[in-house]
Amino acid sequence: GPATCVTAWPNGYGSRFDIISAYDGCLWKYPNIGAHDSPWFGDPVRYPLPTEIQNLGQVTKLCIVDVDYDGVLDILLGVVSYKDYFPGKGDGWGACGVGEDAAGTNIAFDEKGEWSGGEIHGHSIWLKNFGTLQHPDFASGGPLIQDGAPIDHHCIPSPVSIEWNHDGIPDLISAESNGQLAQRLSSLEFGLRQLEPASNISLGDSAEFDWTDPVFAAIDIERLHRNDLVVGTREGDVYTVLTSGELDEATMFSAPA
Asked: Which residues, 6 or more positions from 171, have their beta carbon under 8 angstroms from its beta carbon?
């Protein structure tokens, strides 16, 4: 099946990286049996996702981070659920074709032209590595928590977790359904498993963006030892969002370019 997302996985053998992808309800790790500058990938190792994650929805993002500070890298998943999104009583678009019920009546929009379905649910899921870099074991996982409840971004999730405010602790950066980019600070005791309330991040002169289903990645584009963002959109556009300065509790970014 098609791979929904791919990321590099350090294998502990010098500077070589393996590749991990997610599809068909599993993680697949492709070992780099070549060199760092001329990679060659061998047959994949299959790691079935826990049943509760498979039942939750589709994986949309992989992010490598040590969630629980035990010195072993884990995986942060973005998982989208459409269980309340589509109108109709059947799976997906009801019992018949796209946007129609069994009688052929359009049920996607009401008489005013407004969406007649529900909300998308977007979750950030922690997948714990009980093994090592060379032999990971992703046997269980669970949602990231805020205020005692699982976080729901209400959009297709693309969580990024990396150290932003120089406290040595990875935080969570994510797009929200209101068209804003949010930062949630990690708990000092529980790490990314329990997060502080979200604060919106300014993008230049604006706090909002108009991207469709953005996918984020963190990278030091300017090689200034700080984290910038690369953003891909459904329209096929790619933007860079550079770090322009530091706030007390959140990173401030420049306008997308």
From this structure: 161, 162, 163, 164, 165, 183, 184, 185, 186, 192, 195
